[in-house]
Amino acid sequence: MNSWLLRRSRRPAAGHRLYCFPFAGGSPGIYLSWERRLPEVEVWGVLPPGRGKRYDEPPIDQVSELVRALLAEVEFQPPFLLFGHSLGGLLAFETARGLQAVGRPGPEALIVSAHRPPHQPCEEAPISGWPEAQFRAEVEQRYPAPAELVEDPELLAQSYRMLRADLAMVETYRYQPAQPLSCPIAVVSGVDDYWSEQELTGWARHTSAGCRITLVPGDHHYLLDQPDPVLKIVADLTGAGSR
C-alpha cells in the first residue's frame, strides 16, 4: 500500500472514497473508524511524513511542498471527497486546487472543518521557530500531552518535531489566487470556535459550485467528541446512508 495512505478494509464496491487529512499534531487514524458509520464509502487517511508508521521520516513544514509530494505519489480514485480538520482542512483545500491545476480528476466535494477561509491571514503569533525549550513550554501550555506520551521521552520528542512542522505549515502559509474550485465546499465549524459564521462565508469565493456553512455545538476540537455532523454531510453528498 502507498505510504501516504491508510485504511482499515478494502471496499472495491464502494460508491465513493473519502480521503481524510490530519489536524496539527494528529494522526489520520482517528478517521478510519468512520467506515463503520459509512458502509458505502471507502475511508482513507492521508499520512504525511513524520507521524505514525512514517515517524522516522523528516516531517514537511510547508503546505506547498507537502501537496507537491502527495500529488506525485497518490492517485485519488474517483469518485471521491476530500476532508480535513483544522490544518487538515487547509491541506485538503490545496490538494483540491493542485489536482485542478494540472487537470487531474478532482473531488466531488471538499469538506473543511474548523478552518478560516484560506485568504484570511493567520492571526496567531508564530512559535514554530522558537528555541526548543521555549517551544516545548508553550506547547505544553497550549496542548497538554497525555501522561503516556510524557513518560516516553523518545516518543515525546518525535511528537514535538511533528507538531513544530505542522505549526510551521499553518504559520507560513500564504494564499495564492487561482481559479475557484469546480466542486462544492462544505464548511463545518463549532459555534465556539475562533470564527463567526459571517467570516466563514468567505469560503464561498473559492468555489464556483456553491458553499454550505454548518455550525455545530462545541469549539475548535468539537470533532474529537462529535463527528456526527461531518458524517451526515458525507452521507448527504455521497447519497450513502450513515449509521
Describe the structure.
The protein is of the alpha/beta class. Helices cover 33% and strands 15% of the residues. The protein has a single domain, classed as Rossmann fold. The chain has helices spanning 63-73, 87-101, 132-142, 147-150, 153-172, 197-200, 222-225, 228-238, and strands at residues 5-6, 16-21, 41-46, 80-85, 109-113, 185-190, 211-216. A seven-stranded mixed beta sheet has the order 1-3-2-4-5-6-7, sandwiched between helices. Helix 2 (87-101) links the parallel strand 4 and strand 5. Helix 1 (63-73) crosses helix 2 (87-101). The longest helix has 20 residues, at 153-172. The chain is globular, with a radius of gyration of 17 Å.
Layout: helices, strands, pairs:
Layout: E1 5-6, E2 16-21, E3 41-46, H1 63-73, E4 80-85, H2 87-101, E5 109-113, H3 132-142, H4 147-150, H5 153-172, E6 185-190, H6 197-200, E7 211-216, H7 222-225, H8 228-238
Parallel strand pairs: 2-3, 2-4, 4-5, 5-6, 6-7
Antiparallel strand pairs: 1-3
List keywords for this structure.
seven-stranded mixed sheet; 243 residues; single chain; alpha/beta; globular; 7 strands; Rossmann fold; 8 helices
The CATH class, by name, is Alpha Beta
Low-confidence stretches: none
* Structural class by secondary-structure content: alpha/beta
* Portion in helices: 25-40%
Strand percentage, roughly? 15-25%
CATH second-level architecture:
3-Layer(aba) Sandwich
The largest β sheet comes out as:
7 strands, mixed
Strand element count: 7
Global geometry: globular
Output the number of helix runs.
8
Radius of gyration: 17 Å
Termini separation: 28 Å
Output the CATH topology: Rossmann fold
As for the number of domains, it is 1
In spatial order, strands of the major sheet run: 1-3-2-4-5-6-7
Tell me the series of helices and strands, N- to C-terminal: EEEHEHEHHHEHEHH
Q: Give the averaged pLDDT, no decimals.
A: 90
Can you say what the CATH homologous superfamily is?
Alpha/Beta hydrolase fold, catalytic domain
